[in-house]
Amino acid sequence: MLVYSLKRIGLGILVLILAISSLYMLIQAAPGDPASAMLGPRATPALKAAITEKLGLDQPMPVQVFNYLISVLQGDLGTDLKSKQPVLNTLKIHLPRTLELLGASVLVAALIGIPLGSIAAVRRNSLFDRAIGLLSVSVIAVPAVIIAIFGMLIFAAGLGWVPAIGAGEDEGLLSLLHHLILPAIAVGIGWVGYIARLVRASMIEVLSANYVRNARAFGLPERRIIYRYALRIAVAPTITVIGIGVGVMMGSAVFVEIVFARPGIGKLMYEAVLLRNYPVSLGAVLAASGVLIVATTISDILNALIDPRFMESGE
Amino acid sequence: MSVTETNPPAERGAFLDGFLRLMSDPMGAIGVVLVTLLVLSAVFAGVLSPYDPAAIDVPSKLQAPSWEHWLGTDQLGRDVLSRALYGGQIALSVALISTALAVGFGVILGMIAGFGPKWLDNPIVLAFDTVRAYPVIILALAVGPIFGAGLNTVIGILVVTSVPYYGRIVRTSVIAASKADYVEALMAMGMSRARILARHILPNIIGPILILASMDIPVFIAAEAGLSFLGVGVKPPQSSWGLILDDGYKFIRQTYWLVIAGSVPLITATLGFTFLGEALRDTFDPKLRRGV
Predict the structure, then answer these.
(1) Which of A37, B226, B231, B238 has CA atoms 20 to 30 A from the CA of A298?
(2) What is the pTM (predicted TM-score) of this model?
(3) Is A80 domain-assigned?
(4) Where are the transmembrane segments (chain A) (predicted)?
(5) What is the pLDDT of residues B210-253, one digit of tens each?
(6) What is the interface size between A and B, counted as CB pairs within 8 Å?
(7) What's the CATH number where A134 sits?
(8) Are A241 and A302 in contact (CB under 8 A)?
(9) Which domain range does residue A209 map to?
């Protein structure tokens, strides 16, 4: 287990290094030079040359990539062109808000999806099962941006049940949670469908396994078999899906943060792109990739802990 | 008889049989109807559109639906129905082209990783994992403006970020298939690896991959709309459901109609393709159900 965890963490670090390096090279390979892009209309040949030298863009690519990696390791992600502060400071303000949203969304998805999926599996082929099946597919299909816009129109602007904008970060925990409800549902609702379907499928498989038959033969109560033994195994694939799904959820979070004017990585990036604030948008991609890599690594290790067979299959 | 060889009349019968089975599933039937409507409206957008989708008529801006403008007008007085119909063309083209390219490259790279020279396997898998480390929408926001917003950039981003998904599945399937007795027999007979891959392994693994690809079409449609909403996708005066949604969101205080006009076709398309994909999978490859 320890060896597997270390290997998985090592792979995560390698992937992160490769992701940072390739992103850097991709940006450099883009048409137009970064110096002009950063300077915008102010670009004069002298200014461009100064920026090129300052950023080390006149050096060979491997040296540039190495230098960039070193500066990222030291926490130097460049300067926010808008606030003139280090990009790291800007990220420190916005990343926690996005992580809050992602955490709450995963919670919404799991708290609704797991019970729905397991009840559907236990009542297989019932009307409830079919209704959950249809509902799952439907919520998966509707894009988060639409759920966010209509959620805001109906529940915030129309009914006034929840705040329409902001994250309520300066008004205490209750306000924070109040501001989080609708955005978390908008990001998490599609995953309710994925999780319900996945839990249902694996639960059905587990419930027909030999050890469940044995448990029944020994006279263990059905409730105990389902919730104590079967659910534990059936939930394992959910953890992988959530691990992989964090990337998609981050995409949904971008829309939700924009629609609800919530501070966060998505809104930060959107504004950075509008203002051509490249250091911030690059830093935000790196932060988001870092979160995604950490999430998939943790989900793999958790999965191996719950079901050791996972270590052999690896995916 | 080779694995791919089939009898044409039997194939036609199998196709009809498959279609009937698909239509007997309510989800499949709804999917087929919605997708057919969508495809027809996109193909005949030029005939069906009452106005030029880019024609500006500022005095008639932000009108509610009427007999002249069935879905109303936007902030520049453009006819929203015409824009929605042309938006369907964009959504379908992006989704189909991106899916085809992602599957094509994914299959090639996955086959090389799974059945090509051993030393290539690890670097390819590592490259897949690296690309998968970027959240798609966030990467698109960063990279899109640098390469210039537009259709090609949207397709490029969707293809690059989806290839690893197909590549990994193809690699796993190829490795499993290559252990089959018939592959060993063909190798013992001296058939080249490339020929075995193309003639025998590929036809055996491509079915499930195509079904998975059909399930990605709604994801790509939603991604195009999302990227256009964010301003890194399709650029005006071209039309896109995401652009209509963006206009609607910006003018939400004046009218709800634009948001509704952008959402309804988008939801219809994603629901239709999702239902169709699900039904296709359940009808033709129930084994896939467990893993998806």
Answers:
(1) B226
(2) 0.87
(3) no
(4) 9-27, 101-122, 134-156, 176-196, 233-260, 280-306
(5) 888 888 899 999 999 999 998 888 888 888 999 999 999 999 88
(6) 141
(7) 1.10.3720.10
(8) no
(9) 87-313
